[in-house]
Design brief:
The protein is an alpha/beta fold. It has a single domain, classed as Alpha/Beta hydrolase fold, catalytic domain (Rossmann fold, 3-Layer(aba) Sandwich), CATH 3.40.50.1820. The chain is built from twelve helices and eight strands. The radius of gyration is 17 Å and the shape is globular. Pfam families: Abhydrolase_6.
């Protein structure tokens, strides 16, 4: 399921695609990821659901213009515009990492209605960010100028650290690819520099407004965002359920794919029945 369609928004090119039939399910990726992480799960669900994938501006196959902001606020505006473009009314939303904050802001601030929300190891409330993320946040301009071979090694080490079980070489290469080259390298540091925790503080202050089915999955070995943050997030949302995913790190998709697929189908079957 490659991204064959594009949506033009505020000078940006947003890559997206859909397949299948049935209730609408929209997948949101995080950073430094892309929709590639969700593709096998979307394909597996496409027999019963209409599944939508997209790359946020500045990520994956979407445009990476240096003049375009990529903060949480802009991404939420882009997501709201994309949902309108698709003509979706109350889709089921599935998110990971940064996609949690984006989807929450789209719902809570832009008042876009969802039918349900599933969040896996999300950046949604403070604090967030791995030690390397915080280092880059402090020195984005310096690190953006390192030689390409050093940058590639940094990116691959950073991405690999998100997995508890370790990544296959081809998976690591696919995840790193969008961040390499003349366009990808500066884009990698630019999206980290755009991180602003105030958006997460706003999300946390508004959690009690959420009135829809919410499920949270969290890898028990997530060293980027500890399980305690997932527990706090679940406690702040009325009726939310939290399911720990054993022996999985932040990249729960690759550490525990069978559990992820099972939980996704079980959840979507329940909220659409």
């Amino acid at each position: 399921m490659d991204l064959r369609e594009t949506f033009s928004w505020e000078g940006r090119r947003i890559a997206w695609d859909k397949t299948g039939s049935g209730p609408a399910v929209v997948f949101c990726h995080g950073t430094p990821w892309s929709s590639w992480l969700w593709r096998p799960f979307a394909e597996a669900l496409s027999g019963d659901f209409t599944v939508y994938l997209w790359d946020m501006p500045g990520y994956g196959q979407s445009s990476k213009d240096a003049g375009h902001p990529v903060d949480f606020g802009v991404q939420a505006e882009a997501f709201a515009a994309l949902l309108t473009h698709w003509g979706l009314d109350r889709p089921h939303v599935v998110t990971h990492d940064y996609g949690g904050a984006v989807s929450l802001r789209t719902h809570l601030v832009h008042e876009v209605a969802y039918a349900s929300l599933l969040m896996a190891d999300v950046v949604a409330i403070p604090p967030a960010g791995s030690p390397f993320f915080r280092l880059v946040k402090q020195h984005p301009d310096v690190l953006a100028q390192v030689p390409p071979y050093i940058h590639e090694a940094l990116v691959k080490a950073y991405i690999g650290n998100a997995s508890h079980r370790g990544l296959h070489e081809d998976d690591l290469a696919r995840l790193a690819a969008p961040w390499l080259g003349e366009e990808g390298q500066p884009a990698f540091y630019r999206q980290i520099a755009a991180y602003d925790e105030r958006y997460l503080e706003e999300n946390e202050a508004l959690l009690d407004r959420i009135d829809l089915p919410v499920k949270i999955l969290w890898g028990t070995e997530d060293t980027w965002i500890p399980p305690a943050t997932g527990e706090r997030l679940a406690a702040g949302i009325r009726g939310a359920s939290l399911t720990p995913v054993e022996r999985a790190g932040h990249l729960v998709h690759l550490d525990a794919p069978v559990v992820m697929a099972t939980e996704l189908r079980s959840w979507l079957t329940r909220v659409t029945s």
